[in-house]
Amino acid sequence: MSKVIVQGERWFPSEQSFSDEMKELWGEWYCDSEVGKLRAVLMHRPGQEIEGITEDNFAEYRFRAPMNPEKARYQQDELANIYRDHGVDVHYVQGQRTDKPNAMFMRDLVFMTPEGAIVCRPAIPARRGEEKAVAATLASLGVPIIKTINGDGYFEGASAMWINRETVIIGTGSRTNESGANQVEAELRNIGVKNIIRTEIPYGSIHLDGYMNMVDKNKLVVFPWHLGYDCAKQLIDLGIELIEVTNIEELKQGMAINFVAIEPGKIVTPSGNPETKLLLEKHGVEVIEVNLDEIMNGWGAVHCMTTFLRRDPI
To answer: What's the rounded Cα separation, in Å, for the pair 93 and 95?
Structure first.
């Protein structure tokens, strides 16, 4: 049999999409909602970095009070155990810097998508550099990094929120500028997000989760006095029910809507907010409480500490 000789180098690309190959080549990393069944998260257990927070310096790190390190670790461990009890794989950031006491608030550092992670660039100088250890940890887990915010942009993960596979809210404000928001919007449109709802985050909040959070497939908990009308109207037109929380003490001091949905209609939330809990239960939501009063001295709670790595599609 004669041998066929092909002249020259002839290389032909695969036309298979990234998403079609992702499970085989990278693993099952996916997020297109705030409420799909939670399967894996990334957290940072408070380490040496919070031991230097004192009465003299807590304000420069945007803490509301000094934090007891052992109590803070215990409270975060309790949250992690709740996740594990519900079948969630809890991964931890490795090699984080010891001079970054805000590093436990992981939501700000990653925004997860159906095709991988967007690594964020924090706005305040005290947090810049946290993202390096996060990116290294994502790589070690095999999570694709589809974008790192760069140039003159800054963007924090809690400035964006999934409504469904085709719809994402992006807010600009003190923690996300137009350049950062545009970079995120471009990546989301590249992976098939059709509806980007742009909104201005008001002066009294730094992130979207300060005044809104998805609790079920078509239910959004909101603080109505911070929710822009144009944003609200677009959500209502999409069939989203707005559940209004108006107890300012619970919202601001108790971080009543800084929760994470474990699955549609089932959340884990900071304890000590009875009025908000009753309201959610009246709307058919199952509420699991966890005491985070020490963690909240850093102005964060459940949602702030949790990066979603994998949720089931809804």
So the answer is: 7
**Residues 6 or more apart from 99 whose CB is under 8 A from it?**
49
Q: Which residues contact 115 (CB under 8 A, 6 or more apart)?
A: 18, 19, 22, 144, 146, 191
Domain ranges of the chain: 27-311
Which whole number is the average pLDDT over 87-101?
96
Q: Could you tell me where the DSSP H helices lie in 191-244?
A: 229-237
* Residue 9 banded pLDDT, cuts 50, 70, 90: confident
Under the banding of pLDDT at 50, 70 and 90, the label for residue 6 is low
Q: How confident is the model at residue 1 (pLDDT cuts 50, 70, 90)?
A: low
User: How many CB atoms are located within 10 Å of the residue 127 CB?
Assistant: 23
CA atoms 285, 205, 314, 243: torsion sign: positive
* Closest to 35 in 3D by CA, of 309, 312, 304: 312
SS3 247: coil
Which DSSP state fits 261? E
Q: 280, 221 in Cβ contact below 8 A?
A: yes
Report the CATH number of the 27-311 domain: 3.75.10.10
